[in-house]
Structures are given as C-alpha cells and as structure tokens.
Amino acid sequence: MITIEVNGRPIPAEKGEMLLTALRRAGIKVPTLCHIDGLNATGACRMCVVEVEGQRGLTPSCAFPVADGMKVHTHSPRAVTARKTIVELLLANHPDDCLYCNRNGNCRLQYLAEELGVRQRRFAGDRTRHHIDASSPSIVRDPGKCILCGKCVRVCEEVQRVAAIDFIGRGSKTKIGTAFDEGLNVSSCVNCGQCIAVCPTGALSEQSQVKEVLDALNDPNKIVVVQHAPAVSVTLGEEFGMAPGADVIGVMTAALRRLGFDRVFDTGFTADLTIMEEGSELVHRLTNGGRLPMLTSCSPGWIKFVETQYPDFIDNLSTCKSPQQMMGAITKTYFAEREGLNPTRIYSVSIMPCTAKKFEAGRPEMGRDGLADVDAVLTTRELASLIRMAGLNLRDLPPDTADTPFGERTTAGKLFGASGGVMEAAIRTAHYLVTGRELGDLKVESVRGFDGVKEARVQVGDLNLGVAVASGLGNASRLLDQIRAGRSDLHFIEVMTCPGGCIGGGGQPIGANADAVRARMQKLYAIDADESVRVSHHNEAVQRLYAEFLGAPLGEKSHHLLHTHYAERGVVS
Amino acid sequence: MAKNDLDAVLERYPNASRDALIPILQDVQQELGYLSRDSVVRIGEHLNLPASKIYGVATFYNQFRFQPQGRNHIQVCRGTACHVKGSAAILDAVKRELRIEPGQTTRDGQFSLEVVACIGACGLAPVICVNGEFHAGVTTKTVGKIIDSYRRKGSPNDGSDHETT
Ligand code: SF4
Ligand code: SF4
Ligand code: SF4
Ligand code: FES
Questions:
Q1: Residue A76 in domain
Q2: Can you give the pTM of this predicted structure?
Q3: Residues with Cβ < 8 Å from A223, sequence gap 6 or more?
C-alpha cells in the first residue's frame, strides 16, 4: 500500500494500479466515457483527466499508474473546463435527439452535459449524416449518436472474441461498422448485446418489439401468453430504483397480468424440462459413445458463435432447444390442445435478459407448420418500459403467482440465470438418472461464482465426469482452442454468451457494474437455498407433461418439438 | 475465379503476422484490381484476423478499393497544386456527375473513381486522369463533358449510369 494525495487529502493506493482505480475506491468521482472495468485503458476519450503535480498538461487517470506521494487535483478549474470542452465538442456533432432517444434519462453523454453545466451550444459543427442500421433482429445501430469511445469494439473483440465491428475510415469520416460496412445481420455478430450494455449513449439499442406486443395485447382475438426467464425477476427491480439482486417475481407476475397477458408462465419450467432432456442426452452420449464433450445449447449467441467460428464443434452441441423455444413449442401444442385453442390464435411472448433471444426466436429451425414457437421477445429493459407506460408502480402491486401448467419451476431451473446454473442443475439430475439417488446436499460449489471459467470433476455413479463452465465467449473460445489442441478430459461444458451468465445479459438494465451482477447471482443462490424443490426431476408439472403428452425424455415427441440441429455459416454471409 | 491469384499472393507470406497485412492487401489489390469479399475473408483466415479489422485497416488508407474498377477509371488529383487550383470542387463535380464516392464503381460498371495524391502534373493543375489520359485545367463546367466523351466511347445504350452502387 502506498499513499497519494488527492485534493489535499491522503488516500491509500495499490502499487501499480491506475490512478482512476484508487480514486474510485476512495469514492472520488471522476467521469469516464471510454473506460471498461477489467480491460486495458485506451485513453481515447480523455474525460477522466486530472491534474497531477509535476506533469505538464492534464493526465488521463484511467491510464496513469499511481506513484507514492503523488499529488492529484481531480476537480481543478483546468480539469473541469477540459472535461466540459470535451462534452461540448462531442455535442457539436450530435443530433440532440434526447426526447426521442431510447437512452433519454439514462445516457452518459446527457448526464455529463448536465453535470458539467453545459447550457449553450458553443461549437456548431457539421453534423455527419448516417444511416441507422436496423438490419439485425436484435441490435439497432444509430451511428449519429456514436461518440466513438470504442467500448463496443473492445467488448466485441476482447470479451467476446467476435470482432464483428471495428473503426472504419479515418479522420472526420471515422465510424464504427462491420466488415464491408454492411448490416449487422450479415456480419459475424452473435447478437449478444454486450455492446449495448457498455455503450454510453443511444447509439446502440435493442430492436424493440414493444409495439408488436402492445398490438397483440389489444387484439381481442389473440390469447397472449408470456414467459419470463429465470434471470429477469432478479434484475427488473433495478429499473425501478431497487437494489441489485432484489427479487420482484410476485409483483412482476402481477404487473404482467395487469398489462393484459392472458397467461403468465415461468421459463424456469422449461429450464427443468431442458434438464430432463439434456441430462438424458448426456447420459445417452456417455453410454453410447456419442460425441463428447457435450456443449450446452441454451444461449443463442453461443450457438451462432459455434456456427461461424467453431463449426467443427456443431455436433458437440446438445440438440436441445433452449428453454425459451421449448416453452414456445409446448405452448402452441400441448397447451393449445389442452385449452381447445387453435394455435394460430396464440401469441407467445417471452421476457428475456437477452437480445440474442430475438434472433433465436426467428431462426428457421424453430416452430412448425409456419407457426413460430415464440412470436416476440422483450428484454428486461423493454418490459420495464411497458410497465412504466401502463402507469404501474411495482412497489404498490399485490404479488401474484404464475399460471398452470407451465408456471411451476424448481430452484434448479431458476439457477439457469447464473453461469454454472445449467451445469449444477444437470449434475443433480444426471446423478439421479444414473444412480437412482440424489446427489449429497445438491450444492455444486465448484461451478458457482463469477470466474470466467470454472472446472470440476464430479462422480456420478461409476462415471467420473470432467465438467467445465465458461461465460463470455472469449473464455469459451479459449476452452474450445484447448480441445482443438487435443485436450480430452472434459465430458460436459456449459457456455453462456454473457459474462456471469444471463444475469449479465445484453438485455438487462443498463449501468450494472460487477458488484450488481454478483448481487443478482447471490440472489439466485439464496432462492436455491431457501426453497424445498431443488431438482428438475421433481418438478411435478414436468412429470405430468411427460405422462400426458411427451412420453419419455428423448422420445419421439420430444425429438420433434424440443430438439433441433444447427449448421455452419460463414463469418460474413 | 481469381482464387488462384489470391492463393499465390498468400503463399508469398507463409506464417505471416499482422505486420504483413498492408503489403498483402497491396499485393492482392495489384493482382485482382480490388479487395473482394472473399479475399478479405481469406486474408483474415491467413493472418488470424477478423474481417472487420481488415476492412477497418483497409479503409484507413485511401489506396484500397472494394469494388472492381469500371471500364473507365477516373483519378482526381488532390495534390497541393491541384488543391490550390480548386480540385475539391472538381472532385465534388465528378461525384455528383457519377453519383459515386471515391473507391466506388457505377452500377453499370462504366466508371470508377479514385482520389490520388499528387500525380506529378502540377503544371496542368487541376488535373484529372482517365484511363491514363491526362486532362489539364479542368473546371467544374468541363468535368461533365470530359466524362461524356468517355461515356460515348462506351457501349451504345449506357444511358443508365446515373444509377449508383
Ligand atoms: S444519445 Fe444521449 S445525448 Fe444523444 S440523443 Fe440520446 S439521450 Fe440525448
Ligand atoms: S451484439 Fe455482441 S457480437 Fe454483436 S456487435 Fe454487439 S458485442 Fe459484438
Ligand atoms: S456505438 Fe456506443 S460504445 Fe460504440 S463507439 Fe459509439 S458510443 Fe462508443
Ligand atoms: S476514461 Fe480515461 S480516457 Fe476515456
């Protein structure tokens, strides 16, 4: 530990760390636009400049290491003026569209303009005209609002190893774009939305389906069915000012009813169903010499990543559809039959922590007879805006419970929301399927937590399984590289596209830091500790579904409705 | 079709790293006349670089084009002497006439446009060069006529060159 002096007061710092890190720890606010926690600084935006005595000029604190005894002034007139000028220059080439902007009220640029007291237009620049790229089913890019901070490029390349976008052109013509400056839909983009999560402005947003959903809700002929993913109830509260990790399941269910949804189902139900199918598939592969390691298939960004960059692993992917798609499929078959409804009257909506789920819902592999499994996908953020639009106050609503037959879930299904959750749920059930006995105290500590890669050896009867869990595609790709290079001790790998799993998804409330994501994760673990039914094979409603409709896991009907196959696609199409 | 040319270029750079990107791009453009989609993807595979990165780097420099050259290739000089004599306006006039940007080719394949640094004909400024023929002292008024003269040399029914890419 060393000591530095900031604004006349001593603060502790760690040798070698960047000044910004020390300032933040001490609670001193220095604004940033291009900084991403955990990635190397680029010093691109210069918003974080401070005065360091003995340095000529201003110093970007995100890229400047601390030194013992250094004297720093974070809010000297010079530093503040410099920051204000940066914002004014950015605004000179900005569309001033706040009233129409998806980030109105939640925009770093807007916030900084306010904080720094920008009250007039000092620089009138030529506004660069840009086309909005709305080609992707998941992501909309509005380069007019882009301030070229580069965060999206770095997340896409360094965290996700996708590198769908980069800086193109030079000088005043520089912009962010794909290879050949084409639509995101034909690029290698996997639709994860991690770029949206880091974008300080409204330049990136999800492809909204709020209007489609409202239209369906207003259509008296439609039965509108909604499902919500396990990671949504522990994040939605943040959109309404609650602390990260607050679980709003009851009031969220109530809000969905008030919004007019005819049935509220829990995707945790089909998470349990997925475990029955996927656990059986794993056991089948293990005992019949199937392709190993088996890779999970619930995360659609990951699926597209394998299709484009690791097509040699397509046969390793579990053939299970994701819980979202399974829910859609059984809603339009079993549920429709049971209720005597023509499936064409059912409009199936899902609330997801994810932008890639929008892409997944539209995949040609999904649905049957020209009917989609899922008709519209809303992110957690879009649900929040629907709730606000309807004037509902989450704090006032009396909690409600989900509908039968797909409202019941176990805590194993709920764990799907965190990285390692699918693995933990699968181990619990595989153990039961193989040995006929429950696994010890059920908890599989080694696959929990926030690490990018977690590995364990687990004993399931006579089988000693090597399992690995990766979240963030960069981590997953390093694991696949090891396997390509000959590593052979792994049998089952869970991959989630987003760091930390769906709780860190690209459709979640904007502005969550690592601590917030940890709090969401802890909540899921707390739910698992508190409830009594903790294994997917004891979900009674799932058992009933098998007895009345599906038959057995991996059976004929399951094969038809719940499984699919993926195929190689080019990096640019 | 030009796959073999591309292979030949890449073979000249075995085990190449990122440093070789610019020379490879130059060689490929030399061989094929432009950087095709396929070549960008293949160069990416060769260097283990994403296609977006290669496109990003290539667009940083003015010299690379991503469409084949047109039957008539127009180079507008933007060197200092031409600049002083108003080449910016000439470039605008050509762009307006053909409705393409530098680096692009008209959809009918008749014309392509390139901006070049000094072509070394400063005495003739402002200068444009079409298929290697120099046109001296060009004005925004004469640009259209010059382009028309090449258009006439083209195929008889090519009145559609206002369509753009
Ligand atoms: S990006 Fe921010 S500053 Fe720009 S229009 Fe949207 S809200 Fe306003
Ligand atoms: S959605 Fe994901 S893959 Fe697509 S550009 Fe954004 S970060 Fe990259
Ligand atoms: S799109 Fe957003 S994250 Fe990407 S460079 Fe522009 S402002 Fe930054
Ligand atoms: S945050 Fe330090 S330069 Fe952008």
A1: yes
A2: 0.91
A3: A262, A263, A339, A341, A345, A346, A347
pLDDT of residue B118: 85
Q: Within a domain: residue A112? A: no
Last residue of some domain: A207, A240, A257?
A: A207
Task: Tell whether A220 and A143 lie within a shared domain.
Answer: no
Range of the domain at A33: 2-88
| pLDDT 10s digits, A490-548 | 999 999 999 999 999 999 999 999 999 999 999 999 999 999 999 999 999 999 999 99
Best mutation site among A88, A99, A101 for ligand 1, i.e. most ligand atoms within 8 A of its Cβ? A101
Instruction: Say which amino acid occupies A173.
Output: K
Radius of gyration over every alpha carbon of chain B, rounded to an integer in angstroms? 17
Task: Give the count of domains, chain A.
Answer: 3
Together in a domain, A137 and A238:
no
Span from the CA of A118 to the centroid of ligand 1 (angstroms): 14
Q: Which of B41, B50, B56 shows the shortest C-beta gap to A168? A: B56
- Ligand number nearest CA of A109 is 1
CB spacing of A166 vs B41 below 8 angstroms: no
Does A94 fall in a domain?
A: no
> Any idea of the CA torsion for B116, B120, B125, B128, to the nearest 10 degrees?
-40
In chain B, the domains with their CATH numbers are: 3-60 (1.10.10), 72-153 (3.40.30.10)
Beta strands in A142-235 (DSSP E): 165-168, 175-178, 204-206, 223-228
pLDDT band at B164 (very low <50, low <70, confident <90, very high): very low
The CATH number for A164's domain is: 3.30.70.20
- Shared-domain flag, residues A53 and A192: no
CA count, 13 A, side-chain hemisphere, A263: 25
> A329 with A278, same domain?
yes
- Region B80-104 average pLDDT: 91
Question: What is the Cα–Cα distance from A81 to A86, expressed in whole angstroms?
Answer: 9
State whether the beta carbon of A439 lies less than 6 angstroms from ligand 4.
Answer: no
Which of A162, A166, A571 is closest, CB to CB, to B56?
A166
Q: Are residues A177 and A223 in the same domain?
A: no
The pair of structure tokens assigned to A414 is 């709920």
A429 to each of A246, A253, A432, A491, A536, how far by Cα in Å?
28, 28, 5, 16, 7
A115 is catalytic: no
ipTM: 0.84
Q: Could you read off the pLDDT of A227-240 as tens digits, one per residue?
A: 999 999 999 999 99
Please indicate, yes or no, if residue A569 is contained in any of the structural domains.
Answer: no
As given in the structure block, the two tokens for residue B22 are 């610019």
User: Which positions in chain A touch B40 (Cβ < 8 Å)?
Assistant: 179-180
A31 lines ligand 4 (CB under 6 A): no
The answer on A158 and A18 residing in a single domain is no
Does A152 touch chain B if contact means CB atoms closer than 8 Å?
no
Inter-chain CB pairs, A–B, below 8 Å: 54
* Cα A80 to averaged position of ligand 4 atoms, centre (Å): 14
Confidence of residue B153 (pLDDT cuts 50, 70, 90): low
A188 in helix, strand or coil? Answer: coil
